[in-house]
Hints:
It comes from Fervidobacterium nodosum (strain ATCC 35602 / DSM 5306 / Rt17-B1). By secondary structure, the protein is of the alpha/beta class. It has helices at 3-14, 28-43, 72-77, 133-144, 150-163, 174-185, 190-194, 202-213, 230-235, 246-251, 282-288, 306-331, and strands at residues 17-21, 47-51, 69-70, 84-88, 107-112, 123-126, 216-218, 223-228, 258-266, 269-276, 292-293, 297-303. The chain has a six-stranded parallel β-sheet with strand order 3-2-1-4-5-6. Strands 7-8-9-10-12-11 form a six-stranded mixed β-sheet. The model has no long low-confidence stretch (mean pLDDT 97). Guanosine-5'-monophosphate binds at residues 25, 27, 91-92, 95, 114, 116, 273, 291-294, 297-301.
Amino acid sequence: MNRDFLNIVAELNKAKKILVVGHIMPDGDDVSSVLSATLGLRKIGKEVLAGIDWRIPWYFQEFEEVNEILSYEKIMEANFNPDIVLILDASSPDRVGRFQEFFDNRTVLVVDHHGTNTLFGTYNWVDTKYGSTAQMVLRINTELGVEYDERLATLNLMGIATDTGFFRYSNADEIVFSDATKLVSLGGKMYLVSRLFENKRVEQFKLLSTMIENMKMELDGQIVYSYLSKEDYERNNCNEDDSGGFVGELRSIRGIELAIFLSEYEKGEVHVSFRSRDWFDCSRLAVFLGGGGHPRAAGCTLKGNLNVIVEEVIREAKNMFVSQRESRLLIK
Ligand code: 5GP
Ligand code: MN
Ligand code: MN
């Protein structure tokens, strides 16, 4: 057994009060991991609060348990003094937002599957072998002797499904399928997970059409990019939660290797998502721009004027695309 894994399980066993924290701009894997760990630890008698320092996208309300995840303000109001902090699916301290304040003089446990993780915890179980952090939480819960019911199994399954693009991406390997099988046998329901995204507002289709209007190609159609400005969101009566799958739509275009989607979620604050199809290492580009992620899916957040950021990001993407393509040809 992995030593970091065992240390983390031992610390969780020892602790009475635990703060479970996810990352800003939470995705399905993050919400799933935080809820699965929180409900699991409560089942074995721990006092647990869960926090994410960001608004939780509305579609997660499909799962009523999501209301167990509290804002930073609510956790402060509760005057919670945890023995330890468990951080899930976050690759660097900035990704947990203001919950970093809880790190001082406490044991910090980091559980994550990002290769770009900066190992900022007291104990770090970081393994890129896993398609999702939710699978790592499944292992922790199992080791802790947590009994799964249908709800917990479904919530845990949600993270595996969402981080593998519903079992379609290159990270959907044997461990992913066997973990999903295990959760389904424990009562997990895929149709409930699918409802998260088969529940669209009409406004989201209008927003998609704006995104398509803004779309441009580079390098003979190997790179595609698009963006949405704050005004684009407002005009369509939407916010950034509503553009969740857009970068995936861009990557699905035939012949594309790299898809880039820039989202001005606040005036002057832009989140950039990178997705690649076969070989481009998005995480290298994202790290270069101050973010992180995986080889096929990565991102970063930049401040400034949207048009300027679009221009800069596309310039850097083209440069890195050409250099990665050349070194690939050399290796071949
Ligand atoms: P997305 O494009 O869906 O926001 O993120 C894709 C992947 O990149 C996810 O694994 C996410 O955790 C990571 N990622 C996205 N944005 C950032 C960022 O600003 N910083 C870091 N470190 N990772 C990010
Ligand atoms: Mn995540
Ligand atoms: Mn993840």
